[in-house]
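Page 42, continued from yesterday. The earlier attempt failed because a stray header line got pasted into the input along with the sequence. Redoing it now with the clean sequence only.
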Amino acid sequence: MTTDATRPARASAIGVIKRENLRTTVTNALRAAVISGEMEPDVLYSAPTLSQQFGVSATPVREAMLDLMSEGLVTSVPNKGYMVLPVSDRDLDEITDIRLMTEPPATVAAARRLPGDIMPELRERAEKIVTAAQSSDLIGYVDADREFHLRILEFYGNTRLLKLVSDLRAQTRLYGLKSLVEHGTLVDSARQHHALLDLIEAQDFDALDPALRAHIGMTRGIWAKGVDD
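This time it went through. Structure tokens are written below.
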């Protein structure tokens, strides 16, 4: 087992954050770091070290870790720190299966209920995903992607489903995103969100469902495993 203080240094997307709403901001950043693989299993992470990376005190980091523990993403190591819980291939297959059963029909139903004035906001959110991809910001990419899809699902009007989808997304692992960055193809994946919005604007809901299924399917494809050299 290595620690975040002793492991070999490498470029990280974890960086200093703004100080408003610290607990939520740190929680979102740490969750995205787990999903993207920036934070790995079998590595011991301490609150003081993470707080230095974020440029905040240790308190919001510890509070954020409590949130991630409740989501089943990390576990506490008494008097030492926290470790990311591993997720098996079977777990990921089951998570994807449930997402495919729930997200596409709910998103299509939500898309039918979107108010006309919401599209500029959704376009801005989609562009935020592209911007994160262009800057190789994996944590920003994962967080912006999550917020984009959950924002649309809000209009379905089912808070339990929204929480279920949010939790399932948190349990997904997208370790292949690093490979997409290295091959320069993450931006192409990011632009899929604009393509989804094109279908919504055209009210082509018959095409939206399979597009969403293909989009989610990538979480067990190149987003999870990367691309071959």
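Notes: The beta strands are 2-3, 43-44, 74-77, 81-84.
Reminder to self: strip header lines before submitting.
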